[in-house]
């Protein structure tokens, strides 16, 4: 297991849809270990594989002391609405109110091929949507209102490394 470096916008891996995992290889098992170790840090709610530079459909989560992962997640349903602060490890230092569904359910598999269903309201629902967006090549800034998105992009340009 290894704590992996987080890729930040504008890294192109964050804008590339991730590939489906077709075979559980030793490399996929190592990826899961790295995702779990990297998300297990205070203040981290979720982490997608492309955020650590791997374009495969996998993410880990750390919500209210519950840590886990899912491979090949598919968003099955969402309902309700929430509008609250959201941030992203790949967009450091920026938090904006973001509109999301309140409830979300994702279905995927684990490294043994067993079905995994993750669902929840509030923070869990937000994290499921946020991580699935990453795997589809989107960052939360894409969901901001036009003026807030402009402000965020200006800030990022002025604070580029």
TrEMBL record:
EC number(s) recorded for this UniProt protein: 3.5.1.88
Residues of the active site: 131
Co-factor note (free text): Binds 1 Fe(2+) ion.
A molecular function (GO) term: metal ion binding
Superkingdom of source: Bacteria
Role played: Removes the formyl group from the N-terminal Met of newly synthesized proteins. Requires at least a dipeptide for an efficient rate of reaction. N-terminal L-methionine is a prerequisite for activity but the enzyme has broad specificity at other positions.
One Pfam family here: Pep_deformylase
UniProt keyword annotations, A-Z: Hydrolase, Iron, Metal-binding, Protein biosynthesis
Protein's name in the database: Peptide deformylase
Cofactor(s) required for function per UniProt: Fe(2+)
CDD domains assigned: Pep_deformylase
Protein residues bound to Fe cation: 88, 130, 134
Family: Belongs to the polypeptide deformylase family.
Biological process (GO), any one: translation
Gene giving rise to this polypeptide: def
Record-linked InterPro entries: Peptide_deformylase, Peptide_deformylase_sf
NCBIfam families membership: PRK00150.1-3 (NF001159)
Catalysed reaction, written as an equation: N-terminal N-formyl-L-methionyl-[peptide] + H2O = N-terminal L-methionyl-[peptide] + formate
């Amino acid at each position: 297991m290894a704590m992996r470096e987080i890729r930040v916008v504008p890294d192109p891996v964050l804008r590339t849809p991730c590939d489906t995992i077709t075979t559980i290889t030793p490399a996929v098992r190592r990826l899961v270990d790295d995702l779990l170790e990297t998300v297990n840090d205070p203040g981290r709610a979720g982490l997608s594989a492309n955020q650590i530079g791997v374009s495969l459909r996998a993410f880990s989560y750390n919500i209210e002391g519950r840590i886990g992962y899912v491979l090949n997640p598919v968003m099955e349903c969402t309902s309700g609405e929430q509008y609250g602060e959201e941030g992203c490890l790949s967009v450091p230092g920026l938090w904006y109110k973001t509109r999301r569904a309140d409830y979300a359910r994702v279905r995927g598999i684990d490294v043994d091929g067993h079905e995994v269903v993750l669902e929840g309201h509030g923070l869990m629902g937000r994290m499921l949507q946020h991580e699935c967006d990453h795997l589809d090549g989107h960052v939360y800034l894409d969901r901001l209102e036009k003026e807030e998105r402009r402000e965020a992009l200006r800030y990022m340009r002025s604070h580029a490394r």
